[in-house]
Amino acid sequence: MRVDWKNLKEFQLNPAKVTTPTLLLQGIGDGYVQPAAVARLFTSLATPDRSWVVLPDSDHAAHVEDAMPAWVDAILHFIERPRPGLASPAPAAADGQPGRD
Q1: How is the chain split into domains, by residue range?
Q2: Taking a C-beta distance cutoff of 8 angstroms, is the pair 24, 41 a contact?
């Protein structure tokens, strides 16, 4: 999503309509987005499949700071986590290819 932050009216998000799995990442030192605002967003999401991770040693731009490894780990954990009702990925074979039944 690309938004011109000088014109915030372009950013129209209705969390009650978000039904896809959602990961919210926030730096502990984020001076731009307050934890109360993230909490309101998080609790308003329509999806029950949601996570909110607060990253240590980071601010609003954790993906380009020293916290990048924690940022990547949080994303990978969210993507790879077990989810009820979804099949687990097949383990890779010795040759690195997906396993076959």
Answers
A1: 20-80
A2: yes
Asked whether the whole model's pTM tops 0.85, one would answer no
Alpha-carbon gap, residue 64 to 62, rounded angstroms = 5
Which residues make Cβ contacts (< 8 Å) with residue 5, sequence separation at least 6?
11
Tell me how far apart the alpha carbons of residues 39 and 32 are, in angstroms, rounded to a whole number. Answer: 14
CB distance 25 to 74 below 8 Å? yes
Q: Tokens in use for 75?
A: 């994303």
Mean pLDDT score of the chain, rounded to an integer? 81
Those residues whose C-beta lies under 8 Å from the C-beta of residue 92, and which sit 6 or more positions away, are 98, 99
The secondary element (H helix, E strand) that includes residue 36 is: helix 35-44
